[in-house]
Design brief:
The complex is a heterodimer. Chain A is α+β, with helices and mostly antiparallel strands. Chain A is built from three helices and four strands. The longest helix of chain A has 17 residues. Helix content of chain B is about 35%, strand content about 15%. Chain B is built from nine helices and eight strands. In chain B, strand 1 and strand 2 form a beta hairpin. In chain B, helix 3 packs across helix 9. The radius of gyration of chain B is 18 Å and the shape is globular. Classes of the chains: A alpha+beta, B alpha/beta.
Chain lengths: ~90, ~300
């Protein structure tokens, strides 16, 4: 089973069309293995991207170097998945 | 569960549990509910649609599907809740009873069974189908880019490793082709609603081109009313509009094809995450999400009933 320990989901705020394009550049960097949960669309619409642990540093440097604001929406994806599994298991045993 | 009354709607379920639920519901309501198999998935799993009908022959119908993107678990869970709601409200709620007295409802809860099974067994983040692409080690096609509507235009990817890979040709995915064949065979579907998550949107065509649909004003008005109904329950904020103007260009999409087939009331929902969970929406939000979405669905279904075409 694929595990997502250390994966984070960043919520990026693109202020204008130029910044949306910058995020699209990021999307093309296949080696980072990014998973866009909400793709770059209109300025002002949140852009959510799951970043594997090995790529986190590079992505944050990329964003900060270009003045792209972001917050960490999910600190560790695997811990949410563990909660979800626990909840399913608990309800099933009930 | 021994009955759909003891089934737990406030938790996520496996494919087998959802398929068992369908059998339970059909057995409890033999006059109203039947389970149709419209095809088999790439890996050979049955593709089921629940039919809700109070009689007649090939009545005008409403189609609702959930789970075409397998990781969007709140949609399949909402689909289960909708199925129970339909069965228990018929004969109880006058407005809804009027709909089912005149129209059939088709509900496909697990539209991408291979992908859904994979999210439970191997990778919770899986979105696409599980078909193999010759010449690539990457697996799966985005089933919402594989329809024959603007197929191959900007707004999808030709890269098999991309999450929005369109596939080698339109309807290459059997999960898509099964619906296409069903819709063409039925020929009397009047509303088609495909449910995704997340980002709180109610969308209508088009996604692959900027041109507005001929019925834009009416679709916009219906979407506005449906969003108002949805928001009235828990205050969940939704935006509405055409796909391309509200989010981005997306080609080969489901409701562009259904609209081009003449199904005027073609809508896509993007259900909630109002907070910071994305696809990992806690199970505690399943029922509130389904309840608020149901109010929007009722609005669309009533409009469809009252505006025959």
């Amino acid at each position: 089973k694929e595990d997502f320990v250390g994966h984070q989901v960043l919520r990026i705020s693109a202020a204008d069309e130029a910044q949306v394009q910058m995020v699209k550049e990021l999307e093309d960097l296949e080696h980072l293995q990014l998973d866009f949960w909400r793709g770059p669309a209109q300025p002002g619409s949140p852009i959510d991207v799951r970043v594997p642990f090995p790529s986190i540093q590079a992505v944050k440097v990329f964003l900060e170097a270009r003045g792209l604001r972001y917050t960490i929406m999910i600190e560790d994806v695997q811990s949410l998945l563990d909660d979800e599994q626990e909840q399913m298991f608990a309800s099933r045993s009930r | 569960a021994r009955s759909t009354n003891t089934f737990n709607y406030a938790t996520y379920h496996t494919l087998e549990e959802i398929y068992d639920f369908m059998d339970l519901l059909a057995a409890e309501h033999p006059q109203l509910v039947s389970k149709l198999q419209i095809g088999s998935s790439y890996e050979g799993r049955p593709i089921y649609v629940l039919k809700f009908s109070t009689g007649g022959n090939n009545r005008p119908a409403i189609w609702i599907d959930t789970g075409i993107h397998s990781r969007e678990w709140v949609t399949q869970a909402s689909g289960v809740w909708f199925a129970k709601k339909i069965a228990q409200d018929y004969g109880q709620d006058p407005a809804f009873t009027a709909i089912l007295d005149n129209m059939d409802i088709f509900l496909e809860i697990v539209t991408n069974p291979d992908g859904f099974a994979f999210t439970h067994s191997k990778n919770r983040m899986w979105r696409k189908t599980r078909s193999l692409t010759s010449g690539s080690t990457c697996i799966g096609v985005d089933p919402n880019r594989n329809w024959d509507a603007g197929f191959g235009k900007a707004g999808s990817s030709s890269n098999p490793c991309s999450e929005t890979y369109r596939g080698k040709f339109a309807n290459s995915e059997v999960e898509v082709k099964s619906i296409v064949d069903f819709v063409k065979e039925h020929g009397n579907i009047k509303a088609f609603i495909s449910i995704h998550s997340y980002s709180q949107l109610l969308l209508y065509p088009f996604g692959y081109k900027r041109e507005s649909p001929a019925d834009k004003d009416e679709l916009d008005q219906v979407a506005k009313s449906a969003v108002e109904a949805l928001t009235s329950l828990y205050g969940t904020k939704f935006k509405y509009g055409s796909i391309i103007t509200t989010i981005y260009q997306a080609s080969g999409g489901t409701i562009d094809w259904t609209y081009d087939q003449g199904i005027k009331y073609s809508f896509t929902f993007e259900l909630r995450d109002t907070g910071r969970y994305g696809f990992l929406l806690p199970a505690s939000q399943i029922i509130p999400t389904a309840q608020e979405t149901w109010l929007a669905l009722l609005t669309i279904m009533e409009h469809t009933l009252n505006h025959p075409y």
